Structure formats: structure tokens, C-alpha cells
Amino acid sequence: MKRIFPLLAVWALALLAACHPTAPAPKATPPPATPPATESISTATAALNLAPAVPTATASLTTSPVELPPTPLLGPAAAQTNAPPALITAPDTSAATNAAPAIVLPPPTIAPAKVTSLRVLAPEGQISDGLRQDLATKMGIEVQIETYSGLEEAAKKLAAPAPGYALALVSYRLIPHLVSEQRLAPLPALPTIRQPAPKYLHHFYDRDNKYSLPYAFSLAGIAVRAADVKAPLSQWNQLFSEANYKVAHLPDDAALESSLLAKAGLRNSSVGSSAAAGDGNSPIQVDSIAHLKKKLAAQPGWRFVLPGEGSIIYMNCAVIPANSPAPEKSAVLLTEFFTPEIVARLAEENYLGVTQLAAYKLLAPASVGDSLIYPPERILDKCTFVRPGYRPIPAPEATPTNR
Question: Is residue 66 part of a domain?
Fold first, then answer.
């Protein structure tokens, strides 16, 4: 029996151990190495013997991959491996809520170049130097005059790129073309005293006068050197007689000539410009009265004729080009140009008629009484514009006889 009890005790202990096993004590694990605060990301990675993940992005098949910066380490590799994915939350902005707003400065602006002079485009010889100086004095800035000698040259100069002209003085015949090409700017309103009289406004070329204002006019006429012309010449149809037409000099302007033929009652005639063999020295000259008198009035032996059938109107208009370098100065220059004293002086220097009543009152009696410049209303009412639709006339088969 004494031998049995010890065996039972051993057996009981073995049975108890089998039913209640005891987990072994955990082994001590050394703490992970923590890099010094002054260490960079690259040295800390080396200490842990871990290579940072470096994903790449490729722009195209032909470009080199672009390396992204290393991902910052958040802790030991073991902790990252078994840790659940972190919950992504919005950054805490509570600290920045009361921060002062950032000051955003506007981008730097480049100041426009200072305008030191203004260019004006005008018919050749129309603006005298004294008149230019008067405009410059009124504007307080240098005014330069550039000239042209015909419609085509004026259109070409106005089509040139910026900086352009501050003001242009052109024939009404150019206005529709310039408007269609968007080369004109709308005009500012003028004081009432500087506006043209109503009868000179609202014509076909600019019904609302949005882009042009007439400042002067003239009429087509005939200059005759009496000693060299024996045939009668006081009417348009007499100009186109065989004796006169072959020595007459007309402007190289088919539309104007067609209009004159219409005045002569020869609209369907076969007379053409090739039949007029005259030149600048011919005894019969056809042009505007203003141009003829300025050219020939001082020469002896010339007389000037404004036919009673009426005539063709030459209307001079002021416009502001769309590419003016200083639109605000252009508006002031236009207003100063329509000063009655300026308009009256320009008219008297060029044998032009004025469109402004205030300027008309300043004219000398000799100018007001010149019936070639200011004809009676019965003749003025018969005067017409050169309108679209007049076409060059074919070369003549026969010269018409005097009617």
C-alpha cells in the first residue's frame, strides 16, 4: 500500500497538468531602435535596414519615369505589417480658423506707353502748318499731319496696323468701306454749337452719323482757260462735246465721270475716259471747285464754271480710326477740330464750304458771297453724291455731239 500512494500522487499530478496546461512566459523583446531627432528620413531608413517604397509614374512611352518622393516612415516594420489600415480623416483646421487671411497681391500691370504726339491723316495740302499749330495749342500736345493724294492711298494708310491715327479727314466715299472693314470707332457727341447743320447730316453713306461728321464740302466744276477754248462751255453736256472733251482733263475716277455724264444727260452714252486726252496743263480742267481755285485762282486767264444742271458733291468728313493709339485724346481732338474758328479758317484757306452755322458766321464777306462755293439753293438742290452703282463706261465708239 505504501508503494501505491506515491504512484497515485504522481498520476494525479500528471492528470492535473494535462487538463490545465500553463502558457510559457513571453520572451523579452528589445524595443525598436528610434532614430535621433536630427536624423533624416534616409538615415533612419538605413538604421532599420528598410528600403522606402518608391513608386514611379510614367508620362508616356517615350519619357523617362518621374520618381516620387519616399513615403515617410510611421513606425517599426512589425507594427506596420500587423496594424489595421489607418482611418483617413480630414486634416485638422481648427488651429488655422482664427489665423489672419493671406494677403493676395494683384499681378503687376504694365502702364501704357505715354502718348507724346497725335497723328492726323488729311488730304494733301488741306491742313496748313498754322492750322496744325493751332490744334496743337488747343490740345497741349504735338500734332503731326500725314497726307494722302487719293481715295486708294487714304484707304491703304487707314488699313495699316497700330498705332494708327488719332483723327482722319476723308471723303464720304470711303465711309461705307471703312465701316464694313470695322476700321472706324463711334464718334462722341459734340456740343450743339459745333455740330454740322441738319442738311449736311443723315446721308446714305452714314445715316446716323455714327462714324463720321462732315466738316466741309465742295462741288465739281470746270476751269477754262478762255484764250484757248473757243467752243461754248457752261454746261456739263458741252464738256462732252467733241471739241471740248478731247482737250479736257478729268480726274482718273470712273465713278465720278459716270456721275458727270448722268448730269449731262448722257448716262447711257458710250463716252469713256480714254476720249479725254488732256493733262494737267490742258485748257479745260474738271475737279472740285475747291481744288481748281486753289490751283489756278492766282493764274491769269482762268474762269470757273459751276453748271446750272447741278453738280457732284465732294463731302469731307472727320472720323476716328478704330486703332487710334489714344481714343480719349481722339475724342478731345475731334471736339477741338470742330471749333468754329478752326473750321472757318480751314474753309477759307482751301476754298471750301463749311457745314457748321457757327463757322459760317465767322467767314469773310468775300467767301460768303462766292456763288461757286455757296451756290443758290436752286442749284444746290440739284447736286448729288457719287453713289454705289456707277460703273466705268466702255471706250467710245463715237464721240457725242453737242446737244
Answer: no
Per residue in 17-76, pLDDT (tens digit) is: 555 555 555 555 555 544 444 433 333 333 333 333 433 333 333 333 333 333 333 333
Cis peptide before 163 (omega within 30 of 0): yes
Q: From the CB of residue 344, how many other CB atoms can be counted at a distance below 10 Å?
A: 20
The x, y and z cell numbers of residue 62, run together, are: 517615350
How far apart CA 288 and CA 222 sit, in angstroms, is 8
Q: Residue 126 corresponds to which amino acid?
A: Q
Check if the beta carbon of residue 207 is closer than 8 Å to that of residue 200. no
Helix H segments across 215-298? 236-239, 242-245, 254-263, 289-296
As for how many domains the chain has, the answer is: 1
The whole-angstrom separation of Cα 310 and Cα 165 is: 35
Q: Spell out the residues 6+ positions from residue 28 whose beta carbon is closer than 8 angstroms to its own.
A: none
The residue among 358, 347, 312 whose CA lies nearest residue 172 is: 312
Spatial CA neighbour of 214 closest among 165, 183, 176, 169 = 169
Angle at 103 between CA 101 and CA 105, to 5 degrees: 155
Give 256's DSSP letter: H
Distance CA 229, CA 250 (A): 16
Alpha-helical runs (H) found in 143-270: 151-158, 175-180, 236-239, 242-245, 254-263
**DSSP letter assigned to residue 47:** H
Radius of gyration over every alpha carbon of the chain, rounded to an integer in angstroms: 48
Return the CATH number at 177: 3.40.190.10
Q: Closest Cα partner for 86 from 71, 74, 69?
A: 74
Is 26 a member of any domain?
Answer: no
The dihedral formed by the CA atoms of 175, 206, 352 and 219, expressed in degrees to the nearest 10: 90
Cα(205)–Cα(197) distance, rounded to whole angstroms?
A: 17
Rounded CA separation 393/285 (Å): 20
Q: What is the pLDDT of residues 106-156, one digit of tens each?
A: 665 554 557 789 999 999 999 999 999 999 999 999 999 999 999 999 999
Strand-pair category, 284-288 with 248-249: parallel
Which structural domain range is residue 303 located in? 117-380
